[in-house]
Amino acid sequence: MGAKQQRRALTAMAVTAACALALSVASAAAQPRGTTRAVKPALAAAARICTDQSPANVAQRIDACTTLLQSGIKDKPRAVALALRGLAYLDRSDLAHAIPDFDNSIALANDDPSVFQNRGNAWYARGNFGRAAADYDEAIRLDPTAASAYVNRGTLRRDLGNNTEALEDFDKAISLDGNRPSAYLARGELYLRQRDHARALADFNTAARLEPRRAATYLLRARTHEGAGDLEHALADYAEAARLDPQNIEALTAQAAIHRRTGRLDRAIALYDQALGIDQRMASLYRLRAEAFAEKGERKRAIEDVNRSLKFDWTYDTIQVRGMLRLREGETAGALSDANMILKNRPDDAAALALRGAALRRGKDLTRALADLDQAIARDDRNVFAYAERARARLGKADTEGALPDLDRAIALGAGDLDLYRERGLILAAHKDYAKAVEDFSVVVKRDPQAVGILHQRALALRALGQAESALADYDAVIAREPANRAALLERAKLRTDHGEVNGAIDDYAAALALKPDAATSRERAALLMLRKDFAKAADELDQAIKLDPKSAAAYAMRARVREELQSKPEALADYRQALERDPHNRDLRQAVARLHDELTPKKPAKAAKVERTPKQQDVTGSTAAARPVREAKETKEARDAKDNRASRRHETAATRKPAVAAENGRSRAKTDGKNESRSAVKTTGRTAAPRVVVITRPQPRPAMQRAEPRVLRAGESNERRWKELTAQRRGPPPRFMRPPRFSDAFPDRVFRR
After folding, report:
1. Terminal-to-terminal C-alpha distance of the chain
2. Is the whole-model pTM more than 0.70?
3. In this predicted model, what pLDDT tens digit does every residue of 374-419 receive, in sequence order?
4. Going by fewer Cβ within 10 Å, which terminus of the chain is more open, N or C?
5. Smallest Cα–Cα separation from 261: which of 253, 454, 707?
């Protein structure tokens, strides 16, 4: 672009005098007899148009220069006219006619450096860089002070990658002519390609100051701003370039691209419409507008634009674009058809293989999809789409270990799809790598603040890391955007409970219950109300919990404790019994029932009947009544000893068993003799027996297998501890039929219903 402007300025200086000479020669020497005086003004007008060099008048310039050449001019004037017509052909990109005119001009006069520069530009446009470099070198040899020749040669060297030599040429041009904008533009473009945005911006600012109405300067400066991330200034420069050159499609499409990046899709589509108004047959514009429609979600209109593009330029790349659009629209069959169409003629096309693999994945044919995606990556290891689709196919097979490296690779290659960060974050969280998961979730939330689901996932990960404050902040943000998010309310309530914010947790549980009543949530809220000593509200909440889940033993047990705190012990006992019916093996519930039963039903002493007795009768009866507890206790102990001895004898040998049996028989006879003697003693007294006093008591359970005297448990003493104490008092080897302790062993005076 810079070389074109440079050659025009150079040629204008070189041909001014030559055109005047050509006109004088044509008017004086080539005019035959009998011609009118109108020929001379016609040649003057042709010379004036031939030297115009305006790109808008290319056809008129070619005709004018041809008129001069046909007028019979020779030598130097003819060489100048040929050079000017060659320049006009070059402006029209007609290289086939431009180069021969430059050759003929040089054949007539080979001392004009501008002609060598223009022919070098023609060779450069054709791609013959060697001959272009030779012409630039000759132009510099003819005029070492011509700054434009250094700029042109530097541009060629820059495009060939010889940046050091190119920079030397640009610096030389600026040293020769510091007011030449093209030199600053060329050097600034070199800096831009090297991503040295600061130096590039400085050169473009200088060029804009020297020539403020050149659209190319603003285009290059806009690219620099865009490369540096300053999109607003880039957009302003692109707009200025479009204002200076309303037909500049590049300036319009560049603005549209920035609007697409910033999410202003309607503005981007309007700019594409404006560009299509300039050239309705440009296929690339339809493709770009199709992409904007697709990003907006209007995929049907996008497919229509792709089909229009195919009418003007049928290419495999456009077919690929249509296939991708069909895939996103859910037209799996159409996407598969487009992929097969490409692969039929280009079987190694990595993009088409990836497209077909993605279509197969959506059709649940994961095996064939993975095969195609493997081939696509083998042919193009930088295909982001292929890595992303293979990761999702592996996730479809529950292969998270294989999917994670593919997601890493896709993101490392610069994938901008937030779904990739979302999916990788979920996998990392499932693997309990919460720190990295938080990083991925943060990327998603930063670029899409409305991603409430990912904000919720980040809160869970932060909670797992122990960062309660950050997790609470995320829960607050989730609930602010979705007040009806019951899961977030419950999780925030739990986090507040762990953090000691009881009141806030109670409020969260209340909000969750308002959305959907639930017995478990009611119990959680009741527990916090009990912690806050608000037993009345806790009782109400537990009433609701029991109503929602009548089979819950925990709800009845909690309400029983609340009612005890409210001094409603009969109701508490009823709740404990309800809980015990639902959980009959719960030892704590049994103890609670026994405790409240004792408190509510105290024992009353038995009253003997009043009977008139003689003094002797009173003595006998009194002595008998006083001796009864001792005798009963002795008989109970003897019965237990006899039973234990029978069990112990099973472990004895035959030799030791006989003495034990004899001893047992002796004790039995002694007991019987004692009873008989007592009976006979009473009979021999000859006195009347005392009247019998009947005391009604509860039936006694079968005595437990223990040697110690039965006693009531002390306060705070558990059944298990009592059983260990009784077991430690046993003598001899334990019986094989030893059973586990029962609740009734510690409470022999009570009967429990199984």
Report:
1. 101
2. no
3. 999 999 999 999 999 999 999 999 999 999 999 999 999 888 788 9
4. C
5. 253
